[in-house]
């Protein structure tokens, strides 16, 4: 019985424009891979990310290069050998996990040797805006247990004070997306600690984060853009307290599980994050997120309309996927 591979681009309009330090998104542009053999179909989604020089067309081209290998029976181990880490490999790797789970009648979580999956608290993200806009959005989300605040280097105190006033009881993490420098960070860490910020995500650019080694920060600092796979993780030990694992960076669930195990062995706390995508992109990440210190998998909540069926979000928690979606 022959195996068939389908690759396609899809786009999900966002419920509202989403601004970070690098620009504004109005849609989640994703690539979907489906692997079919007989009546068994596995699928997955990736989000090409311009920060890593990825485009939808480029990711599709990268997957096309391995189509023959996939249709010839390449498994996850082979894919992780022949493809580089990144969005393209993520879609292929996770589609294979789903395909084998459905073919064998055993869940991906069981196959990976994980305990039964449970809901996890996920951050809900507030994009950049004026202090009044961000404060109003925080008030709308004030019942959320955890908020993630996107920032650049402008009006830091005004914006965060407005957020704190709007959601006085929420836990808060802050993500400048490489938009600060070490000098600015040194000025702001005490203020961040005083307003109860629990974590600061990749405040300075990759290549400038060596300066974090000498910084005595009362707020834990998490590597995002500075960490993609388990390779080179040791170099970050003196700079960061946490690492953010995203499947579009690791190139799939296979490497994400490996990265988590290696990071924990080195003493890092774990964050599991996402690009802005649908529930299909989040479903495999829920496996990696089990018991993580910080979970940030709210991508579907930013969309005007998600997939059906999609993941359930209740009381600030993301639930494991129904088998009809993935896994």
What does this entry look like structurally?
With 327 residues, this protein is an alpha/beta fold. It has 2 domains: 3-105, Enolase-like, domain 1 (2-Layer Sandwich), CATH 3.30.390.10; 120-318, TIM Barrel, CATH 3.20.20. It is 32% helix and 24% strand. An 8-stranded parallel β-sheet has the order 5-6-7-8-9-10-11-12. The longest helix has 18 residues, at 87-104. The chain is globular and about 60 Å long. The two termini are 22 Å apart. The mean pLDDT is 97.
What is the CATH topology descriptor of the largest domain?
A: TIM Barrel
SSE arrangement, N to C:
EEEHHHHHEEHEHEHEEEHHEHEEE
N-C termini distance: 22 Å
Broad structural category: alpha/beta
Q: Mind telling me which CATH architecture of the largest domain this is? A: Alpha-Beta Barrel
Q: What kind of sheet is the major sheet? A: 8 strands, parallel
Shape call? globular
Name the helicity range.
25-40%
Describe the strand arrangement of the main beta sheet, using strand numbers: 5-6-7-8-9-10-11-12
Unreliable sequence segments: none
What share of residues are in beta strands? 15-25%
The structural domain count equals: 2
In short:
This protein is of the alpha/beta class and 327 residues long. It is built from eleven helices and 14 strands.
Observed structural traits:
alpha/beta; Enolase-like, domain 1; TIM Barrel; 2 domains; eight-stranded parallel beta sheet; three-stranded antiparallel beta sheet
How would the blueprint of this fold be written?
Elements: E1 3-20, E2 23-37, E3 40-46, H1 56-64, H2 67-71, H3 76-82, H4 87-104, H5 108-111, E4 120-121, E5 124-126, H6 131-140, E6 146-150, H7 156-166, E7 171-175, H8 182-194, E8 197-201, E9 221-223, E10 242-245, H9 247-250, H10 253-265, E11 269-272, H11 279-289, E12 294-295, E13 313-314, E14 317-318
